[in-house]
Structures are given as structure tokens and as C-alpha cells.
Write a structure and sequence with these properties.
By secondary structure, the chain is α+β, with helices and mostly antiparallel strands. The protein has two helices and seven strands. It has helices spanning about 1-35, 45-50; strands at about 95-100, 105-110, 115-120, 125-130, 135-145, 145-155, 160-165. The strands form two sheets. It has a four-stranded antiparallel β-sheet with strand order 4-5-6-7, with no helix packed on it. A three-stranded antiparallel β-sheet has the order 1-2-3, with no helix packed on it. The longest helix has about 35 residues, at about 1-35. The chain is elongated and about 100 Å long.
């Protein structure tokens, strides 16, 4: 009887070890694809090189923005842009960050006129209306506690410029 108990314990241990090894292998295989960083972890130098690469032409020179810097798809400090305007543009015109008290917008000149690339309301504001273009002029209206703030943009000399509403 003692030999039978030892065989049962040995069989149970072998099964437990085998199940653990198979489980760990499966977790490692699946875990890397779920939680791993695509392309691996990058060093600080690789990140700096990637950010400085010429392919990142999304940087705009601010014209009326209260804070320096280029727009990005994930900026979160109001009134900075948040990329809520949709997909990346196909035009090759100049981009500018334009701002009002109600929020900011990124516009670019394209062959069809001017187009809003993205827009973001300031804190305590919301977007009431957007005409993203491309057109002769585009506009975004922000509404907040202080009222309505309209940002109208046209291309002047190939550059997006905020203009007074002439309607």
C-alpha cells in the first residue's frame, strides 16, 4: 500500500510540474504579445532620434497660441490641441496653432483652401460647431461659461490665419 501511495504522490507531482511548465510557457508566449511593447523597449537616444526625424512634419509654428510647442495627437494641457479633429491630413501646406479663449485649433493650407486638422476646447468649454473644410474659410465654435468663441481661419499667402467673422 505504501508503494501505491508513493506512486500516486509522484504521479501527482509530475502532473503538477508539467501543468506549471505548460502554463508558464503559454503565459510567456501570450503575455509578450498582449503586454509587451511593440518593437521592444527603446532607449532615450532612440526616442530622441525618432522625434527628430524629418517624417514628423506635424509640428506647427504657433501664431496665436498662448503656450509654445507643436500640436500633437495627445496633448492634454488646455488650451492645447488634443487631436480631436480626425485623421492625419494629406496636404503639404503650412500648419498653425490658432487660439481663442474657448479653445485651440490646428489648421493647414491645402489645395482646396484651408482645413482644420484638429481642435480642442479649453477647460469648461465644449465644441458647438465645426466646419473643417477644406474651403475658402473654416471655423470652429467653442461655448463655455463666458459665452461663445468662434475661431475663423483663412489662408493668406499660403499660411493659415485667424480672421474676424465678417458675416
Amino acid at each position: 500500500m505504501r508503494r501505491r501511495s508513493l506512486l500516486a504522490v509522484a504521479g501527482w507531482l509530475a502532473t503538477a510540474v508539467l501543468a506549471t511548465v505548460v502554463g508558464l510557457a503559454a503565459i510567456r508566449l501570450v503575455g509578450e504579445s498582449i503586454t509587451g511593447t511593440p518593437g521592444g523597449v527603446r532607449s532615450q537616444e532612440e526616442v530622441e532620434r525618432a522625434l527628430a526625424a524629418p517624417a514628423s512634419t506635424a509640428a506647427a509654428s504657433p501664431t496665436q497660441a498662448p503656450s509654445p510647442g507643436a500640436p500633437g495627437p495627445s496633448g492634454s494641457n488646455p488650451p492645447g490641441p488634443s487631436g480631436s479633429g480626425g485623421p492625419e491630413p494629406t496636404g503639404s501646406g503650412a500648419r498653425r496653432v490658432l487660439a481663442t479663449t474657448g479653445g485651440t485649433a490646428v489648421a493647414e493650407c491645402v489645395p482646396g483652401g484651408v482645413r482644420l486638422v484638429s481642435w480642442a476646447p479649453a477647460q469648461d468649454h465644449r465644441v458647438a460647431d465645426v466646419d473643417r473644410g477644406p474651403d475658402d474659410d473654416v471655423e470652429v465654435t467653442f461655448v463655455g461659461p463666458g459665452g461663445e468663441h468662434e475661431l475663423k481661419v483663412r489662408c493668406v499667402g499660403g499660411e493659415p490665419v485667424a480672421v474676424a467673422d465678417d458675416d
